[in-house]
Write a structure and sequence with these properties.
Layout (H helix, E strand, L loop, with lengths): L12 H14 L6 H7 L5 H16 L5 E6 L2 E6 L4 H8 L9 H13 L4 H8 L4 H9 L10
Antiparallel strand pairs: 1-2
Length: about 150
């Protein structure tokens, strides 16, 4: 009985593209050529590079919501930038925001006195407001725009 554990099975050419697309999609970080070569060990480099070019061309067509990009020395399937607002709505839906009295007071101070710094807010309210400011920043009700 022969031991073939070190040999990767060679994929038929029509499956190389599908496997490569699945690998890029499933990878949590950009998939590097080195990782591709390691996983597809029995497939010649020219074959998977050609399949990669086909995948990129397919995703480059108009009307597609995804794209294949080269980033950080690897390949990644991402959403097209023009659809970011839709994806953001799915991942971070805007729910009605309920604010505490402290948050409302802090928001009122910021709205009235802007531009304003943290020490000025603390001086006006008389209490520490670091946690409240963090909440307002997370809810995107305020933003840091620079220095005063």
């Amino acid at each position: 009985m022969q031991d073939n554990t070190n040999e990767a099975p060679v994929l038929p050419p029509d499956e190389v593209r599908a496997v490569l697309e699945a690998l890029i999609f499933a990878s949590p970080q950009p998939l590097t050529p080195r990782e591709i070569g390691k996983v597809l060990g029995g497939v010649p480099k020219e074959a998977w590079e050609a399949a990669l070019a086909e995948i990129r061309a397919d995703y480059a067509r108009d009307g597609r919501g995804l794209q294949l990009v080269e980033v950080a020395g690897g390949y990644q399937i991402t959403t097209r930038p023009e659809y970011n607002d839709w994806v953001r709505e799915l991942l971070d839906p805007r729910t009605p925001t309920r604010l505490s009295i402290q948050a409302l007071e802090t928001l009122a101070v910021i709205a009235y006195k802007q531009p304003v710094t943290l020490p000025e807010i603390i001086d006006l309210r008389g209490v520490k407001t670091g946690g409240v400011l963090k909440t307002l920043l997370e809810k995107r009700l305020i933003q840091i725009t620079g220095r005063k």
